[in-house]
Amino acid sequence: MGIPFDLHTHCTLSFDGKSSAYDMVRRAAELGIKHYALTDHVDLGEFADPDFDLEATVNGAREIIPPLREEYADRVDLLYGVELGQATQDSGTAERLLRENDYDFVIGSLHNIKKHKDFYFLNYEGMNIGKLLKKYFNELFDLASYCEYDVLGHITYPLRYIAGEYGADVDMSEYSDIIDDILTAVIIRGKGIEINTSGLRQKYGKMFPDKDILRRYRELGGEILTIGSDAHCADDLGKGIEDGIAAAKEAGFDKIAVFKHREPMFIRI
Ligand SMILES: [Zn+2]
Ligand SMILES: [Zn+2]
Predict the structure, then answer these.
(1) Looking at the CA of 208, which ligand is closest?
(2) Is 106 exposed, middle or buried (0-12, 13-18, 19+ CB in 10 A)?
(3) Which residues surround ligand 2, an ion (CB under 5 A)?
(4) Measured on CA atoms in the order 148, 154, 156, 160, is the torsion positive or negative?
(5) Which of 14, 68, 121, 184 pairs with 24 at a CA distance of 20 to 30 A?
(6) Ligand 2 centroid vs 131 CA: distance in angstroms?
(7) Could you tell me the distance, in angstroms and rounded to a whole number, from the CA of residue 85 to the centre of ligand 1?
(8) Extended beta strands in the chain, E state
(9) Is the peptide bond between 67 and the residue preceding it cis, with omega within 30 degrees of 0?
(10) Centre of ligand 2 from the C-alpha of residue 83, in Å
């Protein structure tokens, strides 16, 4: 069996994307990925890149989908997605974008917290990491509870830098209550989370979130789970999806969601 889905990927419409949308979809077809989503970045908030042309990106993503969908109609179910960053920091724009664009799938992400740059740019030396992570989880709770999205993107994203790059030891049990609150908010609202396999290709070496949080989500009644590689180039497409499926099974899931017109459809694993 090929790779059944990849619901989190970026092309050159994202500032950090390396392959064109054409190359990404061609590669998805080569790999036999049936349900494939392009989810380019739309990052909001005061630290959004000043050079970022929001309307051009949003319009570009909208325009690129129909011709690609037609060209690959017999092989790939191309899903029109977006990775919406920091909806908590500009809810007006977030709501407008979702009203104006007929997305299939919306990943709600947090790449930076209020008053801080992207976790990628922070200097962790001498920083109170515990306090920073508390703020991250609190803002993620707000996103989970009050913003519009289909799945929460890469829960525990800061660990990519804090544990992975910087090498700090983080005791996640300190955050179990707020993580439970986040997962409960997701479940109550009928929304989902994703397994983001990009961490497997990075120094961090684990998925976002890891198996403990995944298991907890299932225990609390979580049912909607998507899996994405977060590939930023065609070469990374589909990477780790099989590990993600194995982790989902281990956590007690027997189906994975793919989204069309913002509605989940389930695929047995
Ligand atoms: Zn992201
Ligand atoms: Zn992403």
Answers:
(1) 1
(2) buried
(3) 83, 230
(4) negative
(5) 121
(6) 25
(7) 7
(8) 5-6, 35-43, 77-85, 105-109, 151-152, 192-196, 225-228, 255-260, 263-268
(9) no
(10) 6
- φ, ψ (nearest 5 deg) of residue 19: -115, 150
The ligand with the least distance to the CA atom of 16 is 2
Q: Output the pTM of the full model.
A: 0.97
Residue 15 Cα to ligand 2 middle (Å):
11
SS3 107: strand
74 Cα to the center of ligand 2, angstroms = 26
Q: Rounded to the nearest whole angstrom, what is the distance from the C-alpha of residue 70 to the centroid of ligand 1?
A: 28
Note the Cα 39 to chain centre separation in Å.
Answer: 8
Task: Set out the domains of the chain in order of their start, with CATH numbers.
Answer: 5-268 (3.20.20.140)
One pLDDT digit (tens) per residue for the chain, 269 residues: 679 999 999 999 999 999 999 999 999 999 999 999 999 999 999 887 777 889 999 999 999 999 999 999 999 999 999 999 999 999 999 999 999 999 999 999 999 999 999 999 999 999 999 999 999 999 999 999 999 999 999 999 999 999 999 999 999 999 999 999 999 999 999 999 999 999 999 999 999 999 999 999 999 999 999 999 999 999 999 999 999 999 999 999 999 999 999 999 999 99
Place of tokens 């590689």: 229
Sign of dihedral through CA atoms 40, 91, 222, 190? negative
Ligand closest to Cα of 39 equals 2
Task: Please give all residues whose CB falls under 5 A of ion ligand 1, grouped by chain where several chains appear.
Answer: 109
